[in-house]
Each structure stands twice: as structure tokens, then as C-alpha cells.
Write a structure and sequence with these properties.
The complex is a heterodimer of chains A (278) and B (237).
Chain A lengths: L1 H20 L4 E7 H5 L2 H13 L2 E7 L1 H9 L5 E4 L2 H9 L3 E16 L13 H10 L4 E3 L5 H12 L10 E3 L4 H11 L3 E4 H7 L8 E4 L6 E9 L9 H12 L1 H8 L11 E2 L9
Parallel strand pairs in A: 1-2, 1-3, 5-6
Antiparallel strand pairs in A: 3-9, 4-7, 4-8, 4-9, 4-10
Helix pairs in contact in A: 6-7, 10-11
Chain B lengths: L1 H15 L3 H34 L5 H11 L4 H12 L14 H25 L3 H9 L4 H11 L1 H17 L2 H7 L9 H11 L2 H28 L1 H7 L1
Helix pairs in contact in B: 1-11, 2-5, 2-8, 3-5, 4-5, 4-9, 5-8, 5-9, 6-7, 8-11, 10-11
Classes of the chains: A alpha/beta (278), B mainly alpha (237).
Chain lengths: 278, 237
């Protein structure tokens, strides 16, 4: 079976070629679908690449998956939004150099006739309680993303467990798809303002924001490098340069200047400059 | 049904102003799926031939397994290969994850059972007289095998075509092991999934139309080859 020998040789050769090309001028960033789908990376990465010559490969998944990919050493850094989970993973030694980068906020959206009568309520948990009391449909991401984590914390604050209730639908999908499901089902859902603004028109969503502005709806994004002590192969130097650039005045200005097609600013930078690393 | 019209219009415009990004995506699709198909064929065809022509113990078990693997869910293949290729996995040292090679590997795994199983059934359906006659006429075992494969070539090519359809349409496995990285591991199907996520439905549909068009062209080509028997001559002559 010399075919098989040939094949095995080819595969091994290919592996060598592939592994030798992953040079120092390339970093892998596992991040969330919200940063990719909003177009933020398309805006930021060319600026960073031009300045440093480092090419950033983005793998866009949910926050839960991004943290897991980082923990396994399959990325050099991650940019995600679930601060508690992030700090836990840092404490466990998987990541280092974590910095706050930017924020946007979550909003509660629902059908225009607002069956649970929650329009204008200030407290998100109180609104959740009214949704449950009126048995109004609610679509959850159900995928352990940052948004899902936030949603679960709000149910907890409302002292409710919606799991298994007839009106509570777990989509198991990304944000844009979850919004579409909520739209079709005439249901409420929680979404990040960036995705809402970016997709509302294109997706012809017949929904409106019902609750916003509660500090509990704050959505902090954090960036951190995979600990090179855990995974020797990671490009820590490259990751550090990207983190430094993101929290530098240049990077922060670039984040603030990113606007969607309709001129909405989607993310507000909030890194502290003294957090720059040597 | 306006959307279909819009999709075709957009597809036409995209082809007209073919930009470098889209061209790169199309070529990567063809490279990854094409390479996977070649590897799957040069390893799957001998496998199907051995199972079809040789007497082996527990052959039925192999064949049933192979038929089952034809229905492997791409997501499961993707997840399995992710865990194998991950830096924390057994093959992590190769640094293959999130490269086009990982995608080739995933699609090979998906295509191989189809090529092997369909060529196996093409071979066992060849009239046994062919083999017996060539043997009687003094053919060596290699020549007998050639004669049988020659008879089975239409069926074998059908298997290759079916495998090609599977890998070109596949998104679940390559999304996981490739990562859908822009300009590096982004192919037609993962672009379509991404644009659907972003809500760019017309663009996604247009890309789908282009993908289907490419598949059509390739299948027309394969069909012509099948009819003329060119494949047979180019391989065995």
C-alpha cells in the first residue's frame, strides 16, 4: 500500500509547513460574535497591523467558547465580555494581563405592543419579574455567551428561575439569530446595543427597546493574554502588544471613532492608560 | 419571492465586480475541498476495492461501519478534530488548528467513507464474469483488478461526485477547526453563515448562488469526463 505511505508523508510534510509558517508576526484572538458582527474588528485591525506589522487572526465564537479556547492554548489572547468569568479564569492562572477595554450596554427589547407592560421601567430585574408574571414569551440565548450569562444574573436578581417555563425559549444561537427568533415569536429578549443597532433595519425587526439604562445592564469588555506559563507556544509578545495598543490612547480613540452605517457609536472605550505594560 | 430576484441580481453584480477578497474565498473553498477530495479518493478507492474484491474476515462489520460513517455529522467531526488538534490535545504539537490544513483534514474524514462505500458497491455490482473471463484469459491479479475497476468506473465517479457535493456544502466541521478567520480560513460556506448572522441576507444568498454555480460547472465537467471515459484512460492508461 504505497499510497498510504505517500499519504502519511504528505500529511506530515503539510504539518511541518503549516507549523513553520505561524511566525511571530501573527496572533490569534478568540473573541465574541458581537465584536466581529458589529464590524469593530474590521475597523481596528488594519490600524493595528499598519502600526506594528502584526497580523491578527480573529476567531469569533461565544464568550464561553472563547474563554475555553484560550484556556486550552488555542489562541494567544481573548477579548470577551463576562467580567466575573474572566476574573475567575485569571485567578485560576489561565490568563494574565487582563484589562478593561471598552463597554456598551444591554437593552431589553420586545414587541411594540409590550404585552408585559414594562416600557420605561428603570430596573431590569423588576421588568424580568413582570415578564414572568404575565407569562410573556422570552427568548434566551441559551449558549453560555456573555449575553446569556448577563441574562441569567438578572433572573437571579429577580429571584426567579425561568428554566422549563412554557414562555421561556432557549435558542442556543448567536445574538442576531436570537433577535430574529424573538421577533417572529413576538417575544422579549436581552441584546447588546451594538447588535441591536447594527441589525435592526437589515433584519426588519418589528421590536423596540423597552428597558435601558439600568447599571445592571452595563456590558464590560475585557482583553487578556493566554498565560505563557501554561502554554509555552503562545505568542505572548504579540498578544501583549495588541493589548497595549487597545488600551493606549490610539487604540481607545480608534474604538470611540468606530460608527455603524447610521453613525451610531457602538462601543465606549474605558481603559485606564496607566495600565500599560512594559 | 422578490428576495430570490435580488439574490440573483446581487450575485451577478458580485461576479461582475469580482474583488480580491471574494476571489480568495472562492479559491480557498476549491483548494480545501479539492485537496480533501483527492486525498479521500486515493485512500478511499483502494479501501473500497479491497473490501469489494478480497476475502477478509469480518468484512461485513467494516462495510457497515463505513456506511455509518457516510452519515457522520460534520459538527461531530469538527469537534473531535478540534479536541485532537488543540494545543491541549494529542496532536496539538503540529500546530494545525485554525489553518487550512485542519479544514482539509476534516473534509477528508467526511469524504472518505462516501468514496470508499460507493466505490465498494460499484465494484461488487460488476458482473463476476468480467473477473472470471480475464482470469481465464491469463490476466495477472493486477490486470483483473483493473478490468473490474474499469467496469465500475461510472459508479466510482458517482461516489467522487457525491463526496464533492458533501465537502463543498459543508460548514459545521470547517467552522470549528478553521475558525472562519478572514483572509486565512474563510471559505464560501463559512462566509455565507457569517453574512447570515450579520443580517446581510441578500449578500449571503448571492454567495450561495455563486457557490451553486461553481458546483454546477464542476459537475458538468465531471459528467463530460464520465461520458467520455476520460477519467478511466487518464488514470489507468
Amino acid at each position: 500500500m504505497h499510497f498510504k505511505k505517500l499519504l502519511a508523508t504528505a500529511v506530515i510534510l503539510a504539518a511541518f509547513v503549516a507549523s513553520t509558517t505561524s511566525a511571530a508576526d501573527r496572533i490569534r484572538c478568540a473573541s465574541t460574535t458581537s465584536t466581529q458582527n458589529s464590524g469593530l474588528f474590521d475597523h481596528l485591525l488594519p490600524l493595528f497591523e499598519k502600526k506594528t506589522g502584526i497580523h491578527v487572526n480573529v476567531i469569533a465564537v461565544g464568550t464561553g467558547a472563547a474563554i475555553e479556547i484560550g484556556k486550552r492554548g488555542d489562541a494567544d489572547l481573548i477579548l470577551v465580555h463576562a467580567k466575573e468569568q474572566e476574573l475567575r479564569a485569571v485567578n485560576e492562572g489561565y490568563f494574565i494581563d487582563r484589562r478593561d477595554v471598552m463597554y456598551n450596554d444591554f437593552v431589553l427589547i420586545g414587541p411594540p405592543d409590550d404585552p408585559a407592560k414594562i416600557q420605561g421601567i428603570k430596573s431590569a430585574p423588576a421588568a424580568f419579574k413582570k415578564i414572568a408574571e404575565s407569562n410573556s414569551a422570552f427568548v434566551s440565548r441559551g449558549d453560555w455567551s456573555g449575553t446569556h450569562t448577563k441574562e441569567l444574573s438578572l433572573w437571579k436578581k429577580a429571584a426567579l428561575n425561568p428554566q422549563g417555563r412554557k414562555w421561556y425559549l432557549e435558542a442556543g444561537q448567536g445574538m442576531a439569530k436570537t433577535q430574529r427568533i424573538a421577533n417572529e415569536k413576538r417575544a422579549y429578549t436581552i441584546t447588546d446595543r451594538g447588535t441591536w443597532l447594527a441589525t435592526r433595519e437589515g433584519d426588519r425587526l418589528d421590536m423596540k427597546i423597552v428597558v435601558q439604562g439600568d447599571p445592571a445592564l452595563f456590558n464590560q469588555y475585557g482583553i487578556m493574554a493566554v498565560n505563557p506559563g501554561q502554554h509555552k507556544h503562545v505568542n505572548y509578545e504579540g498578544a501583549k502588544r495588541f493589548i497595549n495598543w487597545m488600551v493606549s490612547p490610539d487604540g481607545q480613540k480608534a474604538i470611540a471613532s468606530y460608527k455603524d452605517k447610521r453613525g451610531n457609536q457602538l462601543f465606549t472605550p474605558n481603559a485606564r492608560p496607566h495600565e500599560l505594560m512594559p | 419571492m422578490d428576495f430570490l430576484l435580488l439574490g440573483f441580481k446581487k450575485a451577478f453584480l458580485l461576479i461582475l465586480h469580482l474583488d480580491r477578497d471574494l476571489l480568495g474565498i472562492i479559491f480557498l473553498s476549491l483548494k480545501v475541498s479539492g485537496l480533501a477530495l483527492v486525498i479521500a479518493t486515493i485512500s478511499g478507492l483502494p479501501l473500497g476495492a479491497v473490501l469489494g474484491l478480497k476475502r477478509l474476515p469480518a468484512k461485513g462489520v467494516f462495510i457497515t461501519l463505513m456506511n455509518t460513517f457516510m452519515g457522520l455529522p460534520p459538527v461531530v467531526v469538527g469537534l473531535f478534530l478540534y479536541l485532537m488538534l488543540s494545543r491541549s490535545g494529542p496532536l496539538g504539537f503540529m500546530g494545525l488548528l485554525y489553518t487550512p490544513w485542519a479544514m482539509v483534514l476534516a473534509q477528508t474524514v467526511l469524504a472518505l467513507p462516501i468514496v470508499a462505500s460507493l466505490s465498494h458497491s460499484a465494484i461488487i455490482n460488476v458482473d463476476p464474469i468480467i473477473g472470471q473471463a480475464s482470469q481465464t484469459l491469463g490476466a495477472s491479479p493486477v490486470q483483473v483488478t483493473r478490468a473490474v475497476l474499469n467496469e465500475a468506473r461510472y459508479g466510482i465517479l458517482s461516489g467522487v461526485i457525491a463526496a464533492f457535493g458533501r465537502v463543498m456544502a459543508e460548514v459545521g466541521a470547517i467552522l470549528i477547526v478553521g475558525g472562519n478567520i478572514a483572509g486565512y480560513t474563510r471559505v464560501m460556506t463559512t462566509t455565507i453563515a457569517l453574512e447570515t448572522d450579520k443580517g446581510n441576507f441578500e449578500l449571503a444568498l448571492a454567495l450561495g448562488i455563486i457557490l451553486l454555480g461553481i458546483s454546477l460547472l464542476i459537475n458538468v465537467f465531471l459528467h463530460v469526463m464520465q461520458r467520455k471515459g476520460m477519467l478511466y484512460r487518464s488514470i489507468w492508461a
